[in-house]
Amino acid sequence: MKAIEGDDGRARCAWCEVADFPLYRQYHDQEWGFPVADETRLFEKLCLEGFQAGLSWRTILAKREAFRAGFAGFDAARVAAFTEADVQRLLADAGIVRHRGKIEATIGNARALKSLHERGQSLAALVWSFEEKPAPALAFRAESAASQALSKQLKKLGFRFVGPTTVYAFMQAMGLVNDHAEGCWARAAALQARSVFRVPT
């Protein structure tokens, strides 16, 4: 992966410079690779990465607002209470990816997270305990030893659609891995954000 200069004179990861899809640049500049500890954002991203399996992130990002509407803002407690009627409602929602297995997995993931919360634990503390230290050199991997271990733990807790590749993409997006290309302006910004980030415990 390389950095290329955009029409605003700023160098960014090449994947986000898509002329007909400005949401990519916005997502790259404001979210991707910056550390996150918020439970709802982490839960949403984990579920959306699951929906991406076999598809492109462009497809999911374009539908993200519809996903948020359909899944109650990814409020885990509310999603955990979804019934078969909600599954049918979501299967009829053209704004999202209508895949029964992924819809049911998201509801199951909400229940797994609710169970975690009821034990006094958090998704944030769990995922950040798998951050690689020291940070790995840029390798542009599809998965890592850390994503494999986190995937295994999530599955043990009852989460679904959380294979090592899906989990690695989640880790990249949520700032556990800084895979911004050398020369990308956001690489240094993400490193700075990580330096002042308080790891949840």
Automatic annotation (TrEMBL):
<keyword id="KW-0378">Hydrolase</keyword>
<feature type="binding site">
    <location>
        <position position="180"/>
    </location>
    <ligand>
        <name>Zn(2+)</name>
    </ligand>
</feature>
<feature type="binding site">
    <location>
        <position position="28"/>
    </location>
    <ligand>
        <name>Zn(2+)</name>
    </ligand>
</feature>
<feature type="binding site">
    <location>
        <position position="13"/>
    </location>
    <ligand>
        <name>Zn(2+)</name>
    </ligand>
</feature>
<dbReference type="InterPro" id="IPR005019">
    <property type="entry name" value="Adenine_glyco"/>
</dbReference>
<dbReference type="GO" id="GO:0006284">
    <property type="term" value="P:base-excision repair"/>
</dbReference>
<dbReference type="Pfam" id="PF03352">
    <property type="entry name" value="Adenine_glyco"/>
</dbReference>
<protein>
    <submittedName>
        <fullName>DNA-3-methyladenine glycosylase I</fullName>
        <ecNumber>3.2.2.20</ecNumber>
    </submittedName>
</protein>
<dbReference type="InterPro" id="IPR052891">
    <property type="entry name" value="DNA-3mA_glycosylase"/>
</dbReference>
<feature type="binding site">
    <location>
        <position position="184"/>
    </location>
    <ligand>
        <name>Zn(2+)</name>
    </ligand>
</feature>
<dbReference type="GO" id="GO:0008725">
    <property type="term" value="F:DNA-3-methyladenine glycosylase activity"/>
</dbReference>
<keyword id="KW-0479">Metal-binding</keyword>
<dbReference type="InterPro" id="IPR011257">
    <property type="entry name" value="DNA_glycosylase"/>
</dbReference>
<keyword id="KW-0326">Glycosidase</keyword>
<dbReference type="GO" id="GO:0046872">
    <property type="term" value="F:metal ion binding"/>
</dbReference>
<keyword id="KW-0862">Zinc</keyword>
